[in-house]
Amino acid sequence: MQRLWVPHRMVYVADQHQPDHHDCPFCEAPARSDADALIVARGETAYVLLNLFPYNSGHLLVCPYRHVSMYDEATPEEVAEIAALTQTAMRVAREVLGCHGFNIGMNQGQIAGAGVAAHLHQHIVPRWESDANFFPIIAQTKALPQLLGDVRESLAAAWPHP
């Protein structure tokens, strides 16, 4: 039997701490370089970054800069930009990654499965016709064919600039 070791996932699995505005990774990310924070694009009220613990290659998150936890707390401007960034992310992911579909959604609150419940974020998970297998079920492991930094570079390079 072969094993695929993914020790970087242990940080996510073992850490049940819910950050607040003092240690929120989505508040801290914009202060770092794009490459270091895995930021793909920055808007006026929101930004796009790769998920550090992706469900699939190219798993993106769209976050407002402002620290709000629920969708109904977002301003109309934030909602509009989150939607526009999501649409652009889909177009860029189809072009760069060649994906066939997407899972898009928000988990609102810790009880609903939000890993970082205190800061609103929308998931954009690229999907391919052949990406479903029993590996995650049997081995509880997801094999990702590309490094996060390489995916970020590809997506950022293809992102349209106004």
UniProtKB/TrEMBL annotation:
UniProt cross-references to InterPro entries, sorted A to Z: AP-4-A_phosphorylase, FHIT, HIT-like, HIT-like_sf
Transmembrane segments: none
Keywords from the UniProt entry: Nucleotide-binding
CDD domains, A to Z: FHIT
Protein name as it appears in the record: HIT domain-containing protein
Domain spans labelled HIT: 25-134
Protein's UniProt keywords contain Nucleotide-binding: yes
Residue window of motif Histidine triad motif: 119-123
